[in-house]
Structure formats: structure tokens, C-alpha cells
Amino acid sequence: MENCYSKHYNSFTYRSHTCGELSSAQVGEYVTICGWVQYLRLSKFLLLRDAYGVLQCTVSEEDIDFSNIPLESVVKVDGKVSLRPKNAINSEMSTGEIEVIIQRLEILSTAENLPFNLRNYQKPKEQLRMQHRYIDLRFPEMQSILRLRSQMLHRMRRFLVEQHGFVEVETPTLFCQTPGGAREFVVPTHHAGLFYSLVQSPQQFKQMLMSGGVDRYFQIARCYRDETTRPDRQPEFTQLDVEMSFTDLGGVLSMIESLLTHTFPKLMQEPPLKKITYKHALEHYGSDKPNVQYGLQFKNIKQLFPEKSRIPHFDAFAVPYPAELGKITAKNKDKIKEIAKKHKVKVILDHDIHKEFGSDFESNLKNIIGQQNSAIISMGDYENACLCLGEIRELIASLLRTRNLLKTEEHTEVLWVVDFPLFTKGEKGLETCHHPFTSPHPDDIHLLDSDPLKVRALAYDLVMNGNEIGGGSVRIHNARLQEKILSMLGMDAEKLRHFLNALRSGCPPHAGIALGIDRLVSIVFNTDSIRDVIAFPKTHEGKDPLSGAPSTISEQDKQYYHIRTC
Amino acid sequence: MENCYSKHYNSFTYRSHTCGELSSAQVGEYVTICGWVQYLRLSKFLLLRDAYGVLQCTVSEEDIDFSNIPLESVVKVDGKVSLRPKNAINSEMSTGEIEVIIQRLEILSTAENLPFNLRNYQKPKEQLRMQHRYIDLRFPEMQSILRLRSQMLHRMRRFLVEQHGFVEVETPTLFCQTPGGAREFVVPTHHAGLFYSLVQSPQQFKQMLMSGGVDRYFQIARCYRDETTRPDRQPEFTQLDVEMSFTDLGGVLSMIESLLTHTFPKLMQEPPLKKITYKHALEHYGSDKPNVQYGLQFKNIKQLFPEKSRIPHFDAFAVPYPAELGKITAKNKDKIKEIAKKHKVKVILDHDIHKEFGSDFESNLKNIIGQQNSAIISMGDYENACLCLGEIRELIASLLRTRNLLKTEEHTEVLWVVDFPLFTKGEKGLETCHHPFTSPHPDDIHLLDSDPLKVRALAYDLVMNGNEIGGGSVRIHNARLQEKILSMLGMDAEKLRHFLNALRSGCPPHAGIALGIDRLVSIVFNTDSIRDVIAFPKTHEGKDPLSGAPSTISEQDKQYYHIRTC
After folding, report:
1. B195/A553 CB distance under 8 A
2. Mutate which of B78, B162, B211, B503 to disrupt the A interface (most A C-beta within 10 Å)?
3. What CATH superfamily is the domain A294-402?
């Protein structure tokens, strides 16, 4: 995402240029430069760094001595831009043709006892980086990610506000608890026994905005979930939240496709994006967020098993893979066994197939999977057989990748998964697959009472290289249908009285979506973790190594909020 | 703030036009329109409303009967645009020349039992409006304010990102407690006895970003303060938060002036804005956020009192006002007496001056305040005499305004107040006037030990029509000076260890500001309360009439967070 504006990076400051912008075009000019001391050499050369680049400053006279300035101190240099001697030109630096001859040097801030150096080849451990984030942020990659993130969000806003008339509305984060969904942080108040909850998303608000006539809403919204046990999650995160009235599933998909193409013109395939059904994803990749950058698509091999041998809901799938991978090692065999056990599915590895089922079976299988391929088979209940083989597929892909045998698409693969089921069977009855405000598919409404698990939802997930980066749905805009769904889910409608009233007051049909910004940035800029795209992240346990938060509070505070700890 | 983009308000929807955009240019076209039923007349005319306008739809044939559709139901109309008969043209409606002849009408959502009507002339009480905000938002003023607010923030972002290379960085809201400052909400965690605090501003983070080399930062940030006892405050609010490295007081002032001129080109005076010192504001208006739209400037009349009669720190001021106002009524006299009592200051009303001080005094006073003016005098300790008369000045102004005797500037008056004191004397010792990170004025640093109350701060407030809409300062970037100030304020430096380390690691000089967005929008769009510019506001007690938040939580939740209520 290139920098498309002509900006004044030096307006309102006392520097004349950044460290990155000088070139031979400025030779002869007197400049004022500020930055961090990156490197000192021979008491003569000082490499000055800021967010925009690195610049060589040179002492010409003997009266400026900077040999005692600690690295990472901040200085201000007045000087004259000169061409470097030919043999000193550094073509790897954007400012490598020139240097600034120092006329005046002022130390603005002296660095003391840094916990680590700013050298890429000895990058400190993540814990130490997070503890001293104010230093870690000076690494060029961190600078670059934060700037690209800001650019990306600005491009999204321009698309929505300027091109399509969306209104950014800020909705509250201190609210009441939403039944169902993720665990929400609670916030005690001065009113004894009464708590706010921190919203897990603006879902209720954006739907109430639709009822309120704000027909094209978006927000880059802070959301909160107390789910710190899951890796690569943050207790607070950012989502692009969009909702539209008078639209349908196709409208939202097409809006997001245009948005992504506008935001990442180089990255994206031409819209429309590929759409696959949940059923297709399950039966071919064993996942509702399949990575389709590589093949390894399942084959259904149920027909190879005689009908009488089958259990109820029996199904069988094979994942084919290049035979060059060879025999699965004992260690990986154990991993596969564990996956099979978790899903209560029988799994047969390639070299056991002959022993288990004989030559006829093997040759029939080869006809299906291709003569040059090996395969692993999973057999059992339909859904589990798929999900189990999905995990095995990812393991096989990682083994192939290590051996350089995996054929992968170069470009980012973005697709929609649609036609999810509305409900899933939970321990205590029906549970929602997305959230309780998701509309059933109109063709399946007649099944709500007779066969609810067969009802599809008007829901859609956006999947990028095997990661779910967003999801949404057409919402229920009819209060009676909403009450029915809540009751089927065993949820207390009283807690959503205000919301149901909003549907009852003349609420247009509407649909929307939310994209996880942290994850999206992390995938697009290819970082190891979402923590790398967040200025001040917390650990996966929700701790802040920088400030030590969370921490104890005073007895007075507890009294004020009418709480005791136990 | 006009709408400056050519937008597609109908993209990704199944309507062809909004209710506001049709005119005689579309006559003959077939259109699809969606909206709320605003009004029905003679079973023949249906006024359809959406966020963009109102449109008349007309039945031509007898087979469409909409007489039973409740008002505020949502419908979809397919029809043909026609010119109205000449005698039916309504020049007050933007769509008043045309009507849509209905060919098909679909009810999308039926409104039931609305708690109030959408009629401006019988606008419901605020409590009811907040309780059913999803209906209240349909009033054209609310639609307009939310849209203008979104436009305003977008203009600010464009100025900062596109023209001046600022980076929007999202900083955490779950953090540790900041010593000093407002009361912060606490958030219990699953770790027994450990709490986050909700940040009252991104202050620490933005300063750490400066140390981290993000030299031009901004954020439209959600902030939290548990100060619900103060009227017209919200527990969560939005501020435009900006910070820059390598700048000074003048740099920040000039940046904000450019930003405001860019955002409100019609509203703003030409920069630079007027700058007055805190001392000047106190001595002439009795306030640190003076309303200078009208005159009524104080005159110092200390010289009229013989030296021997004076108490220590004695001072005397008069506020002149047009004699046409006449005698102050008994009720207002009581109000003035109360103000005087609160400030422990002696106040003399105009018609008591002669009785109290005699004719010579009176004629000397007239020479100072102007022969045609009356005056009220306050006498006492310098600061209290000013502050007391400041409150009286506002009362007098309101009395003059009621009688149409107040000469007021038509345009919005925006000015800077500078040269605040760094410290004020609190009950337990020195207290900070802004916050503990504010830099002392370099000319006054030598007074820190000897006469700290005389030290000025490099702080500035932005005042609009008598409201403080923002404030900021040059920050302390030297760890030792910061430690000294914390210690003078009796604050625990250990709680700011991470912050002090950031200053110690090579931190550039920096300065910044925060503008209160809710208040700014409220003043610019002239609403009664900041609640009118917030989509889903809370009452001044921090309650949400819509959802009933805050509310009780379950015993399981309390157990999970290791808290008990008491």
C-alpha cells in the first residue's frame, strides 16, 4: 500500500527535513534534522535515524565531539547537505549519496541503560520487547506496520464515507450483558451491585441504528472479549463493523469485495470472490475456514464400503497427497492417532490400506485419488470424519511444505463460505452457529419446527489463506421470528426487550458484517502474531508486561465500587 | 459543513433512489424506493421518509390499499416518477415537484404501538427519547447531527493523515491506574484480586509512542471517567488526541488552528487565534474559559481604596454593564449574595455604591467604567475577587440577553488561554493544574524550589464561546525533571516506572493536545446538551434508559472474577 498523498512531515516542527528525505537534490541547503543516534564511527560519522530513514551526519571541524553520546540518544543537528566522496556512496541507503556536515549539534535527550540494542540480528525475546515497547517500536518493521495499518484504515474510511455515503457512528462500550456469545468483562459502578459490561461487538447498537434510519453505518470499533485462554487473542481488539438497510446477502458480499479491492488493489483477486458452501468446505477440506492456497481436496469414498458394514450416518473420505512424501514417521503417526481419537473416527494411513482392505479396494481407491498419490482415510460419522481429516490435511500440508513438495498459490486466497447451518447441537439443546440475530434461509423456514438442524442461515464468513477474518449475516428484522429463535435457543428475551422493541417499531431488512482488523493486518503484512500489528499488545494471558496491568487496587476503590475480592 | 463527495447512497442495496434525491430530472423513470411511512392522506397519498428526505407516493389505481398500514412501518415502493399537478407542487419539499405513482407496494416491517410520534411540535421528554433511541434517531435533526459528526471526524482525519503525515495509532483502554487525575473505572479479571483500569486518556501511551519514534501521532480515542456527578458528562467520551515530537507550544497551537480552519472553514476566524494569558482572563473575565462573545470586561479599581483599609492580597474589581438593565431584582440579588458567600468576597451592587462609599468614590468609578454604565464591585483576596465577579458577569450577561441588551459577536469566538500556573495549592499540598506530565515554563524553572506557585506551565486551553473544548501542553521529556515534579506532587513514581523508563531511553521533546469531540460537536451544531450529539448517550448518573445498564450480574460471573458485592 503505497503512500499516495503529498504530505508535509515537517509542518509545525522545528526540523526542516526528516532523516529519510534528503538526497542529492538538496546539496548545498542548510537543514535542521532531529533523530536518534543509531551509530557512531571514528568520532567523525554519526548515523541519525527517525521513522523515515537513516542519514549520515559528519563532523568537519574538530570542535564537535560526540564520542560520549550514548546510542539511542536524541539529537538535533544543524548543517549543510553535501555530496559524499565517490568512494563513500552507499547505494543501499536512500540517503546514501549525501551527508550532512554538522555545524551545530544539540543533545535533546540522553539515553540511559537500554535493555536491548536496536539491531535486527540480535532481536530480543518477545517478552522483553513488550516490556520496553517504547524502544521496540523504533525497529523499522514496527514503524512500518503501524503506518501501514493507519493507511489501511484510512483507505477503508475513504471508500465507505466518500464513495458510498456510509456514516461512522460511535456506539457505547459500557452496556448491559448480551445473552449468549463470548464472556464479557464487567465494570462495577458506584451504584451498589450494578455493573456495566464491556461490549463484545456493536451488534445490538448497529441493528438499533438500522431501526433508527441510519441506513449505512460503519465503525472501526473497539471490542472486548474475556477469552484470554485462546492463543493469539487479545482482551480488546478492533473490528471494522458495517451494517446496511435495504440490502441482502449479495449486497453485503459485493460491498466487502469492493472495499477490499479498493484497500488492497495489488493483493486482491478480481471480484466476485469464490463462494463455497459450508457443506462443500467440510466435505473437501474438513474445515469451515479452509486454506485453499494448496490442493489436497478430499474424495468421498463411501461407495467403496459395502452398505451392510456401515454404521448410521456412516461416511468415508480420503485425502490424497503426493506419494513422494513417503512413509509417515512414528511421531506424526501418533499425532494423527490423537486427532482420530479426539473426533472418534477410524483413520487408516496409506501403507495400512492394503493390509486393512485388500488389493481390490486399493486399486479402486487409486482410481479415485489418482495413481501417483498416497492417501489417508477417515471413516465414521459424516461430520467427524470430515473434521478429523481436515486436521490431518493441515498436518500433511505442513509435512509437504517442509519437504518442498507442496504446490501453493502465490497470491492471497480470499473466499466466502456460505450456507452455514443456523443451529448446532449443543450439550443443553440447540446452539447458534453465528449469533442469535442471524436470519434463517427463507427456503428453510418451514423446517424450523420439524428439523431445525437442517435450517441454513443467511450467514457468511470471509476466509483468507485459511483464516477467518470476518463474518456476518442477514439479520432477523421481524420481532416475532426473533422471539421464536431466542426461545428455541433457550435465551431470556427479557434481557433483549429494548432490542425486540427496536424490531417492533418499524425496522427495515438489514444485513452486515464485521472484519477483524488485527488479524487482517497480520495476514496482509505477514507477521508471526497479531501482537506484531498492535502498538501496545497484551500477552495471551491478558497481561501487560509494560505496566504490569492488571494489578491490585486500593481498599478505597473497592469500597467506592461496593466490591470485595475473594 | 457541506457534503463534498459524490457518493453512491444506493450501491449494494435494492433501492434505486433515496427518498430525498428525486426531482423533475427523473420524470418518467421507474424507481424502487424504501422508507418509513411518515403520513397517509385520503387513502391516496403516502409520504415516505428516509434519512435523505421525504417523498410523496400516490396511488393511481384502486387496487392498492394502504389505509391500514401503521405510521412508521417500513415499505418498499416500485413506481414511476411523475410531475405533480401544478396546484399540488410543494416548494418547501426538495422533492415537491414530483410524486411516485405506485405500481407495487410491499410492507417490509409493520410498526406496532410506538411510544411517541415523530412530530417535531410534540417532541417527547428526553428520558423517553433515550429509552426509545432507535425511534428518536429518526428525527431529521438527529440524522443530521450524526452525519455531520461523521463528516467532521473524517475531515479531521484527512487533514492529519493526508496533508500532514500523522499516524493514527490505536492504544489500549484496559491499562493500569494512573496516579492523580480523574477517577478511573476498574475491570476485574480472572486473576484473583487483579484489575485493569479503563484509561481516562491515551496520555501515557502517546508519550511512549513519542519515545518509540512515532513522531506524529493522533487518535480519535474513546476515554473513560467515572465522574457522573458532574452535569453534561458521560462515563465514556471521545477525544481527538494528538501528539508531536520536535515541536513546541507554537507548533501545536498552529497545528490545531490549521486543523480547525480546515474542518470548519466557514466557522473559524482567520488564524492565528487570539491568545490571552490565564492572568488576563482572570482579571478581565473572572474565568479560565472566558466567553468573549460579549464585553463586560472587568476594571481594576483597587486604586479607589485607601491603602490602609486593605487586607493582605486585597484587590477590587468592577464589572460594568449598560445602565438600561436597571435595578437588580430581589431574586437575583439573592443569587449574587450566594456567589459572594461561596467565594468569601464582599460584593456591592450598583445602587448601593453611593450609600457605601459616597459621591467622590462614585464619580471616580464612573470615570473608570464609563458614565453610561452601571457596575457591580467585588472586593477581597485577588483570585477570589476575580472568580466571584466572573460568575456575576455571566449572570448579568444572561439578564442582559433576556432584555435584548447584550451586544454579542455573531461568530463563534475561539481563543487560546496560555501561561497557566503549573501548580495550585490543594488541601494536602501542591496539586497540578493540568496533569503531572506538563512542562514548567523554562523561564520559571528556577522558581520550582523557591516559589512553586509562581511557576507557569507550558500549557494551553482552547476556549470556544466560553467552553473549554480542549487542552494540552508541552510535556516533560526529561526523566529527572519528571521525577522531581512527581515528588513535589506527592505522587508514587513507582506506579509510573514504565513511563519514566520511556523518558530515560532517548525521548524527544514533544507536545500535544486533546479536543473533546462531543463538546465540540455540541457547540458547533448548537445543541442543548452533549447527549444530543451522541448516538446512544447515558444520563448524567451514568444510566442507560435503553437497556437498563448498569445492572446486576450472576453469582457465576462474580465467582469467575473473584469478587463479592457489598
Report:
1. yes
2. B211
3. GAD-like domain (3.30.1360.30)
